[in-house]
Amino acid sequence: MDESIGPKKGKYLYHSSKAYFTYELNRNKFQKGYLGLNPSEVSGIFHIRYPENKPLKATKIELYFFGMVQTQWSDYNGYYCSNNKEICKKMKCIWEANSRNEENITSLDFPFKFTIPNESPPSINYIGKYKANGSIYYIINATIYRKRSKIFENSEKIVEVKADIQQWQLPVCPDYNPDLLIKKTDSFKCQVLLDKSTFDIKGIINIPINFQIINQDVIVKKINVKLMEYFQLNNLSSVDKGCLVKQSVNGNEVLSVPNSENEFSIVMSLDLSKVKKLWNNKAVINCSCITELFEVWHKVKIEILMGKANNVKFKKLVKLCNIVSDDALEEYMMNNFERIY
Questions:
Q1: For 289-333, how does the pLDDT look when each residue is reduced to its tens digit (9 = 90+)?
Q2: Would you say 291 and 205 are in contact if contact means Cβ atoms under 8 Å apart?
Q3: What is the CATH number of domain 179-323?
Q4: Cα 173 from Cα 193, distance rounded (Å)
Q5: Could you tell me which CATH class the domain 3-169 is placed in?
Q6: Domains of the chain by residue range
Q7: Fewer CB within 10 Å, N or C, the chain?
Q8: 58 half-sphere exposure, CB direction, 13 A CA radius
Q9: What are the pLDDT digits (tens) for 88-139?
């Protein structure tokens, strides 16, 4: 098996060295297209390689593509519980014996493709702190049917691999009326401007902060900004949360505004490519997602520590998703126009 052009062994749920999947030529994943923006599909090749002296005996081979939403949790009595919801399921028969008897197979290659429903959510694997887990996963399955015998009590041989699915969105323009977060006292005025609420999952969130110091005894001691991720099963009240990335600066790094004696400003940045490891020990950030069984959402939190004044806190709900540029989408559409339409 050539793992350089196919999924690694760890992606398989049921693995065989003699029956396996590979990607299409010059590709490193099953998904093609930008799901959510244009027709998208999973495609690849299913291979069978058996020795001449010990061929595969089969009556039929079927390929399946299916997606599931799954949740797992422990109830108050410590019992393990789970729930599942099917997203999609597609099947095609790729080979069948000419007669009712088995036929020998030693070497065959089956190109395949399945259209992904446009409303399908992205793959997610969330492992919570409180024994509450949620996942969205997609599987490509090959089921090889054999005649039942003393050797093969189970008449089916299964090869199954995970297919990571991403959903996409076009770049988001700044909001026409962006949220201006303001905190004002007799001593100072602070405002935070986030000109949009949707961000690329691999991008940077810039957070401009402006101060107007009215009482000269008041100082800015420290500024902390962080991106929080929240997860909740719809049937449970508990919420898992964790800090994905943060930035902190001391007050002396806040710069004065030119031609002003009491105005100061700074732009804080959260680089989502530097997401830290959470409780599942993986540096992974999930897209914001709402399903029938669970929800994942994100917030930007801002904490400003003041001297001789009350501290200031802001929070803003944001959406994280995969964003594709207009140019990349146009290039894909041009290269795949005939195949899509």
A1: 999 999 999 999 999 999 999 999 999 999 999 998 877 777 777
A2: no
A3: 2.60.40.640
A4: 15
A5: mainly beta
A6: 3-169, 179-323
A7: C
A8: 23
A9: 999 999 999 987 788 999 999 999 999 999 999 999 988 877 678 999 999 9
